[in-house]
TrEMBL record:
<dbReference type="GO" id="GO:0016020">
    <property type="term" value="C:membrane"/>
</dbReference>
<dbReference type="InterPro" id="IPR001199">
    <property type="entry name" value="Cyt_B5-like_heme/steroid-bd"/>
</dbReference>
<dbReference type="InterPro" id="IPR005804">
    <property type="entry name" value="FA_desaturase_dom"/>
</dbReference>
<comment type="similarity">
    <text>Belongs to the fatty acid desaturase type 1 family.</text>
</comment>
<protein>
    <submittedName>
        <fullName>Fatty acid desaturase 2 isoform 3</fullName>
    </submittedName>
</protein>
<keyword id="KW-0812">Transmembrane</keyword>
<dbReference type="InterPro" id="IPR036400">
    <property type="entry name" value="Cyt_B5-like_heme/steroid_sf"/>
</dbReference>
<dbReference type="Pfam" id="PF00487">
    <property type="entry name" value="FA_desaturase"/>
</dbReference>
<dbReference type="GO" id="GO:0006629">
    <property type="term" value="P:lipid metabolic process"/>
</dbReference>
<keyword id="KW-1133">Transmembrane helix</keyword>
<dbReference type="InterPro" id="IPR012171">
    <property type="entry name" value="Fatty_acid_desaturase"/>
</dbReference>
<keyword id="KW-0443">Lipid metabolism</keyword>
<keyword id="KW-0560">Oxidoreductase</keyword>
<dbReference type="Pfam" id="PF00173">
    <property type="entry name" value="Cyt-b5"/>
</dbReference>
<dbReference type="GO" id="GO:0016717">
    <property type="term" value="F:oxidoreductase activity, acting on paired donors, with oxidation of a pair of donors resulting in the reduction of molecular oxygen to two molecules of water"/>
</dbReference>
<feature type="domain" description="Cytochrome b5 heme-binding">
    <location>
        <begin position="3"/>
        <end position="80"/>
    </location>
</feature>
<keyword id="KW-0472">Membrane</keyword>
Amino acid sequence: MAKPLVNWGEVKKHQSLKDRWIVIDKKVYDVSSWQNKHPGGRKVIGHYAGQDATGAFIAFHKNRQYAEKFLSAYHVADLDQKCPEDEDINSRIKEYHEDLEGIRSVLLRQGLFEGSKLFFGTMMLQVFTLELLAYLNLAYFGTSWWRIVLSIVLYSISQAQASWLQHDLGHLSVFKSTRTNHIFHEIILGLTKGASCHWWNHMHSQHHAKPNVITPFKLFRTSFVTEMTVTLDNLFRLIYAFENYNP
């Protein structure tokens, strides 16, 4: 059965916490009841309430066909492409997606989405080797001040490398298997840095869902850390305003 046609004016009415519509590939979805079941959390969906979420949907879902199976139940309407009032916004969205797909195609041809097993394997070996050396240095050679300084240097390098390594694992960029990426992400972030992978994925997803949207925003919140807020000055607001597309 054909779905009713709606324009952007109607879509934008549904931006509240309990009433959220998003648009993906010109199809309108009512995700109000789905958002709390969303594996990535409702905040990521909320960033695109009443907006076009096609680019983010493609970027966040490696298996797009699998995700679309869940979406089909929430398809409530189709976007009216012939509405005169929406001619400008539809044109800008089309141009945006064409540019994005063009860049993606170039990067795919250059093989930049293929992770180097040698590179990442060497990084993992380096992280664990430096951690072990930092420990053995103190365990077997004593705790004189210069031994402590040496272990601090070794451990600091290890932690810095682990930070970037866990970042790529969190982005599922190292292995082709999503599960394998998650397992090693738990090892690197959980074991070497003592942080929660769930927390990192949740907060980092906000950053990538709407990059460069500059407003006072929460960096992080946990049960034992006071809420931190950061407000960038007007210069950065002006610069980033031109970098972000938000119809």
